[in-house]
């Protein structure tokens, strides 16, 4: 799902960077109001875990990759997509600069897909379904859907840029990530279950 340099024209990259700057502004305001000495280490631990799971790439035709994401996990744990924006901006920047995974020019697009789209889809799917099907099924579906939708949005962006065939590209990304999302859903449930059992004070819904 990482978009490399050169896959999106610079003028389109600039649009995604504007979105990123706006998102970082609101994420900074959220961090100032909500992060404390207990929750900053949790954010760092989740960032390290996300760095690890995103490093396990599955090649996808036409030059991109499939992998677990973690946007839903961060957004649900903190009940804020702003937390995902902070985590993914840092993680994706490090990956692009030092590991050649994703591009600097495409950083805005990659953060948009994985943090903003993934975080919002995961969090609001959880919120919408929690009262209907229960906490953990809604967490699972939120994480699965976040991975799938973020991948499809990524494919659409590259199709608009002219570097990815629309129908085959979207189908490939959707198929791979529909499977990957199942694994991500299970891992998201496991992590949140463990936090709720051993450190419930760190979960946002226990602090409201």
Automatic annotation (TrEMBL):
Membrane-topology descriptor: Multi-pass membrane protein
Alphabetical list of InterPro entries matching this protein: CbiM/NikMN (IPR002751)
Gene Ontology terms: biological process: transition metal ion transport
Domain of life: Archaea
Protein's cellular compartments: Cell membrane
Transmembrane region(s): 7-28, 40-60, 72-98, 104-126, 138-162, 174-195
Cellular compartments per GO CC: plasma membrane
Keyword Hydrolase: no
Keyword entries, A-Z: Cell membrane, Membrane, Transmembrane, Transmembrane helix, Transport
Pfam families referenced in this protein's UniProt entry, alphabetically: CbiM
Name listed for the protein in its UniProt record: Cobalamin biosynthesis protein CbiM1
């Amino acid at each position: 799902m990482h978009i490399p340099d050169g896959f999106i024209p610079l003028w389109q990259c600039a649009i995604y960077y504007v979105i990123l700057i706006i998102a970082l502004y609101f994420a900074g305001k959220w961090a100032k109001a909500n992060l404390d000495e207990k929750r900053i280490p949790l954010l760092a631990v989740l960032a390290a875990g996300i760095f690890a799971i995103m490093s396990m790439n599955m090649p996808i035709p036409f030059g991109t990759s499939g992998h677990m994401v973690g946007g839903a996990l961060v957004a649900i744990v903190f009940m804020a997509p702003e937390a995902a924006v902070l985590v993914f901006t840092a993680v994706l920047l490090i990956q692009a600069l030092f590991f050649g995974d994703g591009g600097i020019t495409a950083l805005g697009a990659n953060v948009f897909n994985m943090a903003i789209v993934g975080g919002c889809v995961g969090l609001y799917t959880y919120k919408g379904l929690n009262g209907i099907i229960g906490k953990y099924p809604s967490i699972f579906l939120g994480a699965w859907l976040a991975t799938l939708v973020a991948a499809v949005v990524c494919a659409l962006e590259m199709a608009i840029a002219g570097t990815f065939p629309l129908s085959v590209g979207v189908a490939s990304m959707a198929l791979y990530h529909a499977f990957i999302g199942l694994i991500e859903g299970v891992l998201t449930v496991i992590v949140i279950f463990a936090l709720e059992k051993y450190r419930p004070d760190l979960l946002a819904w226990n602090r409201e």
